[in-house]
Every structure is written in structure tokens, then in C-alpha cells.
From TrEMBL:
PANTHER family: GABA PERMEASE, L-ASPARAGINE PERMEASE. Keywords: Amino-acid transport, Membrane, Transmembrane, Transmembrane helix, Transport. This is Transporter. It is a multi-pass membrane protein. It comes from the Bacteria. It is found in: Membrane. The chain crosses the membrane at residues 30-51, 57-80, 101-126, 138-159, 171-191, 211-232, 253-275, 287-309, 344-367, 373-394, 415-435, 441-458. Residues 28-461 form the Amino acid permease/ SLC12A domain.
Amino acid sequence: MPDKTSTPHATPSHTSEGYHRALNKRQIQMISIGGAIGTGLFLGAGGRLQAVGPSLALIYLVCGIFCFLMLRALGELVMYRPTSGSFVSYTLEFLGPKASYIAGAMSFFNWAMTGIVDITAVALYMHFWGTFAHMPQWVFAMLALLLITGMNLIGVKWFGEMEFWFSLIKIVALVLFLVIGSAILGLRVPVDHHTTGLNLITQHGGWFPHGILPALALTQGVIFAYSGIEMIGTAAGECQDVRTVLPTAINNVMWRIAIFYVGTVTLLVLLLPWSAYQAGTSPFVTFFSHLGISGVDTIMNIVVLTAALSSLNSGLYSTGRVLRALALNGSAPRYLTHMSKQSVPSAAILTTVGIYLVGVFLNYLLPSQIFEIVLNLASLGIISTWCFILLSQIKLRQAINAGRIAPTGFAMPGAPFTSWATILFFCSIIVLMAFDYPTGSFSVACIPILAIILFVGWKTFSHKPIHPVPPTQSSITLTDDLLGTSDIPSKPD
């Protein structure tokens, strides 16, 4: 198998980094939806409703607004220069090699932890069925990992197709829940002997049954629920027509957040008392099981199982490309630059799978605690990644205002004020995590350990780019070259 570490020139079918432009508009649009709907909603919302009650909907709304602003910042960067290296490449260009190294390393840490969360979620969902109740949790984690690894190694076209159908199933399921739930609420049909409506909130402690501080402390879990929305920036590097597809895909995220997160959680607490939901069980499975309709809860469990596989699929895709971008920058082992004949970063993908195997082992050691522990650790990586995206966008806008770079045509609204406000919000979440004892406090306590690991890693590698970032003054030419707008084939090869 040839060792394709880099390709110096883009072609109509390949990017300058050697990736195959095989993702079409249909797949990119669905990836953008799937990235905004993951395990955090389908599984994590149950435990969060139990912890803070109806206020979870308000937390989703506030966090969703700032996450959307982060995504708009990423959109401006992508329209300036599409790349599968995404924020690692942008951070290198605008903030320097140290920042790029930290951004990539923390993103890898985020997705490594998220992958462990997802394989844990798959195992938990499988235990819903009595037939598998006595099967060890780690067995299902391993089977899920083998399936997703195979799909990512085959080629990006197959990843895109798999993610399209995974995302479609999630969307259809949520729409069905919203339709059925709204009909039950509108017709005032009792659910498990409870009268539906606002009385389920007012009679059970109001919007903040445990107080405001626990709700604020939970924001890191909500941030995790939104993790993955930045993956559209990575996928854009392998998109056939990024200038047409990306702005629409990003702008549509806002209403998806409003409907699928805020609307869904609000509907859940209007249909059942918030205390009916519990950690480790999908709130959707809880709701449909209380309806008493045979088989519906089984169908919904299949859907949430699909959501976990989708998140694992996306995470492995993103991490492989981030790791390779680090290696191309000289900030990771050179073997990670290896590309397979299918134009996928196979070495980086298999290295990530090696980390996920640690998660399989943790499922063996700590089957009951592993989900919440790893979720909190993943939040640190998510927040740092998003902050680097915003800082890079601030530098890009400064260069645009100074006339060194042409406007992208997709400017972040309200920048730089909105950029700095979003960074401040994300940083405040880390402070709030410290009050979420024990898991949040443990995560914050791990920051010095992460800093030491990052320092050792920085000293270990040369940081001499194997695949240099092109100079900013030729960004317009570079973008045209990357996009191949004059002769991109209408269908993927």
C-alpha cells in the first residue's frame, strides 16, 4: 500500500491534503444535522432532567445560541479556505504552531473521550432488551467499534452514506416524537395516569426544582450534547461545492437547535413529570414505554442506538483527520500522515481506535460509572476546541479589516463582540464545572495533568510542517484551487 503522506496540488477530485472530494450536498446537509443531534440528547438528557428538571430546556437554549455563534465563526474560516485540517490548520495560520498543537491535541482528547462515551451508550442501549441483559457491557462496545472502524476505512463516500442514513433515522424519530407528543399534549391525553401540560412543571417544583446553581453547573453536560456540530468544518474539506452548501447548512443549525433540543426537552417535561426520567435510560424510551403501546419503546431504542453509532462514526471520521493534520504540521508522529488507497487517513483512524479500545476495557472495569466520568472529561476538549475556532476567526477578521485578506462573503454576525462574548461564555462553563461534585470537580482537577501532557508532547516533536500552510496573501487563489470550481464532476467518483 503506498504511503501517501501529502499531495502538493489539488485536483478536481482531490484536495491539496490528498483527501477525496466524495461528499455531496445531500450528505453534507445531513452530516450538519447529525452533528447537532447525538448521544447527549438521546441518552444524556434523561440524567440531566433528573438532575435539574425543566430548566434543562432553558440551558439548552442559552448554550445553543453560543454554539451557533461558534459555528458561524467556523463558517467564515471555512469560506476563506476549506480544508480537512479544519481548525487545526486555521489555528496554525492565525495563532501559530503552539496554539495549533494545543487545539489539535485537545480536539483529539475530546473525540477520544466522546468515542468512549458513544461505545458505552451502545452497550447501555443493548441492555434494554432482556435477551442481552446478562451480556457483558464491553462485548457490545467492542462490536460497535469494529463496525464503525470498518466503515471509516472503506472510504469517505461510504462514511458519508452511512452518516446520511444514521442522521435521517434520528431526524425521522425526533419528528415522530414531536408530532405524537404534541398531539397527546394538545388533546390532553393522560400519560401513565398523569394529566399532561404545564401542571407537570408547576406541581413538581417549577422550572428550577433543585435551585439555579445545579442548573448552571450542568451546562458542561449540555455543551457535550452539542459537540460534533463543528465537524461540518472538517467535512467541508471533502465537499464538492462548499461555497453553495456550507452557508445554508450552518444557518439551518439554529432552528434545528430550537426544535430538536429546546422543543424536545420542553415537550418531555410537559408529557411526564421530570422525575420520571433517569440516567442511563433514553428519555424517549421512558416516554414511549409509559404510553403502554407495545413495541414502540423497542423501536425508539433502535433509533437511539443508531444515534450512538452515528456519533461514534462522526467522531472517528473527525479525529482521524485532526490527527493527520497535527502530523502534517510536525506536531504528532509522522506515521499518522499515511493515507490508504481509498484516500482515508488509515493510520490516524487506527490509532484513534486504539484509544477507543481503552474505553472498551473501562466498560469492563467501571460499567456503571464510565459514561458520566468520560462525558465530563470530553467537555474540556470541546470547550478548548471551540475557543480556538473563535480566536482564529478574530484574527481572520482583523486581517480582512486590514485589507490583507478579501472578505469571505459569510461574515460572523456581530464580530468581534460576539466572538469574545462566546469565548467568555465557554470559559465560564469550566468554572461552573468545578461546582459539579464529584465528576465536574474531578474534570477540572485534571486540567494541570493535561497541561503537563501537552508540555511533554510539545517538547517531543519538531513542529516542522511536512505539509506547509499556504500564505494568507494567496488565499483567494488557494480557495479556487481547493474547490476546483471550473471542473468539479457532478457526481463523486
